[in-house]
CoA-binding domain-containing protein (Actinophytocola oryzae), 154 residues
Amino acid sequence: MRKINGVAAEFLAKKRIAVTGVSRTPEGHGGNVVHQRLRERGYEVFAVNPNADEIAGERCYHDLKSIPGGVDAVVIATRPEVADATMRECAELGVGMVWMHRSFGEGSVSPDATRYGREHGITVIDGGCPLMFPPASDPGHRFMRWFCHVPRSV
């Protein structure tokens, strides 16, 4: 097991990141917030939603395999039951790092997806939010880190 700070830093060192579950109705949706903040921080970020071609004026991909050139890491911000299929797609594509978003409640975390990813050599962060860690963080998310489910190690 590795400490979360180191794993989060490794994840955020990746420059091509897909965010699954970016919503067409973005108000208050965690995936949209993560997508936008990573873009603002200089990451090459790809929105994934099987039901949208465009979100907030930007291209949206229906699945991970549609992203030209692939990605280095994935943030899953969907319902937990969708996380399983996404994790399998990550394994198929050779994506080495996946973060299942979770602030309050269960978020996107699926124990089955976590287990599958780890069995297939994927580093899985099963909780918390990339925006809780530098260089993507902000004061609000750093504060939330103390109240939300963030694993101490992965």
